[in-house]
Design brief:
It comes from Rhizobium subbaraonis. Pfam families: DUF2933. This is DUF2933 family protein. It contains four helices and no strands. By secondary structure, the protein is mainly α. It has one domain. It is flat and about 60 Å long. About 0% of the residues are buried. The mean pLDDT is about 80.
Length: about 60
């Protein structure tokens, strides 16, 4: 395992632990943001979904030309 990968794993583990304790202490406040996160997820999914698939749908007649 490389050094940078080790540091990334340690940082992700620390972030997960911090997130757990913050949500445990402030669960009531965190639930208030849930509707906004759902609304934010819609445009984010539209931005990142389906890129790279446009223009690659060619039928048999296109290949013969």
């Amino acid at each position: 395992m490389t050094s940078s990968r080790t540091w990334m794993l340690m940082a992700a583990s620390l972030a997960a632990i911090v997130l757990f304790f913050v949500l445990r202490e402030h669960w009531g406040h965190a639930l208030g943001f849930l509707p906004y996160l759902v609304l934010l997820a819609c445009p984010v999914m539209h931005l990142f979904h389906g890129h790279g698939g446009h223009g690659h749908h060619r039928g048999a007649s296109d290949e013969e030309k």
